[in-house]
Amino acid sequence: MIFIIILLPITVFFFIPPDHNLLYPEFNSFDITDRNGITLRHVLSKDYRTSSWKGIKEIPPGIIIATIVREDKRFFLHKGVDPIAMARAIYGNIKAHKIKSGGSTITMQVAKIVLNKRGRNLLTKILEIIYALKLEMHLNKAEILEIYLNRTPYGNQTYGIEAASQFYYGKPVEHLSLSEACVLSIIPKSPSILNPLRNKELIKKERDKILNKLLRMGLIDTLTYDCAINESIEFNEKNFIFNAPHFVDFILSQNIDKNCSKITSTIDINLQKNLEKMLFNLIKNLKKYNVNQGAIIVLDNKTGEILAMVGSRDYFDEDGGQVNGCLAPRQPGSSLKPFLYILALSNGIPMSYLMNDTITEFKLSDGTIFAPRNFGDKYHRLVRAREALGSSFNVPAVHILNIVGVEKFYNFLNTLHLSTIRKQPNFYGLSLSLGSAEVKLLELANAYRAIANKGVWTDYKFIRDSRKKIGERVFSEEVAYIITDVLSDNSSRLKAFGDDSPLNLPFPCAVKTGTTKNFKDNWCVGFTEKYTVGVWVGNFDGSPMNGVSGISGAAPLFRDIMIELHRREYPGKFERPKSLIQIKICAKTGLIPGKNCSVIEELFVPGTEPKETCNYCNVGEVRYEPWRIVPDCMDKSAKNIYILHPQDGDIFKLDPQIPYRNQAIAFKVYIDSTIESFSIKLNGNTLCKNTTTFLWQPKLGKYELEVIGNSRTGQKSEKITFTVF
Ligand SMILES: [Zn+2]
Q1: Which residues in the chain are classed under CATH 3.40.710.10?
Q2: What is the distance in A from the centroid of ligand 1 to the CA of 592?
Q3: Ligand 1 centroid from CA 81, angstroms
Q4: Which of 22, 121, 144, 435 shows its CA 20 to 30 Å from the CA of 657?
């Protein structure tokens, strides 16, 4: 009885014929074109389908013989499984301590293609064997061979012998010579290693081996042999349409509808080819600095369309050429900083905010010390936020993150859809301000596009259609403009890069560079009114470059790309929101200028402009406390505590278009050395103790902010009121 229960399903399985649709899938091929209809690639097949099915009688005997001799010598003798080949494979694998050969017959390979199971393990192998036995019960040898030849992969995204013949030789399979037939029969064993386009030497060696075998076995005569062995290995290279390969691979990897005859992509093939050449030449020149790879992305600001995507120096390069550098996660270094300052601006910290750029130790919550260093170990003492961002100083950036908070910055980066920043905020800590979290060039460039689009993030597009992507406002138009202004302001870069840097373009262009620790990655990302461009150079294996900075590596290429993009027409000025305030400030302190101050102009989101007049330039002396200028001119005998922000009577207006969590108000106080301990209170409730800066999540209402300090001579306090509406 038990015997019947087990035997019955097995019998039924073997007697039901295999599914016809699985064996002979419908044929479908399609073209991927550039934005103007020029073919990038004729995708001959997908999901193991072939471009056009060839009956076994149409396929020349040379192909059939070469394939059988190469893949499965005893094909006509076995019943789906070849015990001799299998035993030999098992013995070989045990001897080598790894799986080298599977001893698969042609029938088993058909079973593998039809079952389409991922992963190589014992279970899939057993399934393939069972299915192979079933195939042999229902199909004859010619039918099995026909399916194999029409569906097996022949490398470079081609499946089936006809597709391969068309791709490599530009002619139908019937017209192949014996030598050409042998070459094609070599590929299926290992399509990536035995790629005819890349490894002609190896292909010739393998072809000669097969021809020798055929001669030895008496399957061809010496005259045919001589003719074939002397034929040179040539491919119809003109026929390969293989444009923008990384981009096409990227499209094919996406969830797109492939049941069509044509997919019109967003790329501009002329631009693409120009940029491919430019990158190739740059890397050639940087080779002496151990720079071997690079990547470029170009986006249309308005539509989000990818206009060019260059993934590596050379797609056909054996050393990782097919890796797409636009999609590989790498550390962005300083190129992430603009988003930190965007968050600071959104939290009421203006570009006039004065910081002390000097070696500083930041105490972390776990008690450890973080001591960031500037590029080249140069420090500049007094810097305003504008200069700190423009010249990419590290210490002030860490200070800013310390004020706004790591978690908040982490959440903000998530709203920009930087999908590779996945670890918990604590994992990155304050080093997040220096770009320690890995990002993809494509996504980073698209985040910059949100600045170009005045604070609205939309997804990028790779297929040309009328569908509009939905925008998400992630910061205000005013903040976007101020950051754009800083990134396009040559004078703010002066302290680090000098006057004549490649970042000075002949038209308005906002740009930021980044170089990671030990010179592993070098970035340059930016935008004009029309286009956003991202450039990365480095090495895929992460080996360091020799002293290449943003200015010598990615930046000159960025500059050339921008000039190329605007060859016909220079871009216009960035549009400034009317609501922004532009006022004169003291160049040294960022305060309202006094009599002896040198004056510059700065932009402010209303409500964040300085309220205090600079008195320091009069006195001629400025004393520093960490991160805050101490007004020497103030009469300290009168007061020991100052509330620096907000000022008494301040009114804050919340922007309904921005998440409230991104609009915190910074409470800043100054405490002199006579105060031993102090606390900040809001409407009588203690917010924090012994901290001079506190970020408060605003709610509508009237507030009284009080700082109470204890000194030897008794309690001191300072009180102000402000309103949020
Ligand atoms: Zn001044």
Answers
A1: 306-565
A2: 8
A3: 89
A4: 435
Q: Residue 620 Cα, ligand 1 centroid: separation in angstroms?
A: 9
∠ CA(500), CA(506), CA(509), 5° rounding?
95
- What is the spatial distance between Cα 151 and Cα 159, in angstroms, rounded to a whole number? 6
- Give the burial class of 713: count Cβ atoms within 10 A of its Cβ; 0-12 exposed, 13-18 middle, 19 or more buried: exposed
Ligand 1 centroid to Cα of residue 585, in Å, is 8
Token pair 């297929």 is at which residue?
463
Measured distance CA(416)–CA(135) in Å, rounded = 52
What is the rounded radius of gyration, in angstroms, for the C-alpha atoms of the chain? Answer: 34
CATH 3.30.70.360 fits 634-725, yes or no: no
Q: What are phi and psi of 82, to 5 degrees?
A: -105, 100
Whether the pLDDT of residue 624 is over 50: the answer is no
Exposed / middle / buried, residue 266 (Cβ in 10 Å: 0-12, 13-18, 19+)? buried
Q: Which amino acid does the sequence have at 563? A: I
CA triplet 324, 325, 330: central angle to 5 degrees?
A: 135
Q: How many CB atoms are located within 10 Å of the residue 120 CB? A: 10
**670 CA to centre of ligand 1 in angstroms:** 19
Domain with CATH 1.10.3810.10 in the chain: 15-239
Q: How far does residue 619's CA lie from ligand 1's centre (Å)? A: 9
Match 């096409």 to its residue by tokens.
248
Dist CA 108 CA 115 (whole Å): 10
pLDDT at 623: 47
Look at residues 492, 230, 228 and name the one whose alpha carbon lies nearest to residue 386: 492
Q: Is the separation of the CB atoms in 601 and 485 below 8 Å?
A: no
Query: Domain 306-565: which topology?
Result: Beta-lactamase (3.40.710)
Cα(678) to ligand 1 centroid in Å equals 30
Q: pLDDT (tens digit, 9 = 90+) per residue, 646-662?
A: 877 777 777 666 666 66
Share of residues in the chain with pLDDT > 90 (%)? 45
CATH 2.60.40.10 in the chain, residue ranges: 634-725
pLDDT tens digits, 302-353: 999 999 999 999 988 877 888 999 999 999 999 999 999 999 999 999 999 9
- What single letter denotes the amino acid at residue 269? I
Say if residue 172 is preceded by a cis peptide, omega within 30 of 0. Answer: no
Q: H or E element: which one contains 162?
A: helix 161-169
**What is the dotted CATH code of the domain comprising 15-239?**
1.10.3810.10
Residue with tokens 């399957």: 219
Coil vs helix vs strand at 561: helix
